[in-house]
Amino acid sequence: MARPPGGLPTRARTRNALHEEPERLDSVTKPEVAKLQDYLRRKFANASIRIVAMKNGDSAEVFIGDESIGVISDDKEDGDDSFMFRMAILDIDLEDDA
């Protein structure tokens, strides 16, 4: 089979394309990260809040300074676009502040 300019034969390219991961509908984009970071900084009056998108693109990590405090993920349901912020608070974290 002849190799087209793309490298793989046409059938192989088609077969590989069928096995590629579909585009995620629940990804956190760079503009959303910027808006979320601005929102959280204003809401909590804390300019050291920083949001970093994760490599998989479906969520972003929230930091205060160098400490990770939680994860934000995009939640698209029924045409609505919202974000879920999850923050785990361990019992040992509560003891440190006592």
Walk me through what this model shows:
The chain is α+β, with helices and mostly antiparallel strands and 98 residues long. It has one domain (25-97). Helices cover 31% and strands 30% of the residues. It has helices at 10-18, 30-43, 91-97; strands spanning 49-53, 59-64, 67-77, 80-86. It has a 4-stranded antiparallel β-sheet with strand order 1-2-3-4, covered by helices on one side. It is globular, with a radius of gyration of 20 Å. The N and C termini lie far apart (72 Å). The model is unreliable at 8-25 (pLDDT under 50).
Describe the structure concisely for a colleague.
This protein is of the alpha+beta class and 98 residues long. It has helices at residues 10-18, 30-43, 91-97, and strands at residues 49-53, 59-64, 67-77, 80-86.
Q: What topology does this entry show?
A:
Layout: H1 10-18, H2 30-43, E1 49-53, E2 59-64, E3 67-77, E4 80-86, H3 91-97
Antiparallel strand pairs: 1-2, 2-3, 3-4
Taken in chain order, the helices and strands follow as HHEEEEH
> In percent terms, what proportion of residues is strand?
25-35%
Helix content: 25-40%
* Number of contiguous helices: 3
Low-pLDDT segments, ≥5 res: 8-25
Radius of gyration: 20 Å
Structural class, by secondary structure, is alpha+beta
The biggest beta sheet is recorded as: 4 strands, antiparallel
Salient structural properties:
4-stranded antiparallel beta sheet; single chain; alpha+beta; globular; DUF3126; about 30% strand; about 100 residues; 4 strands; DUF3126 family protein; 3 helices
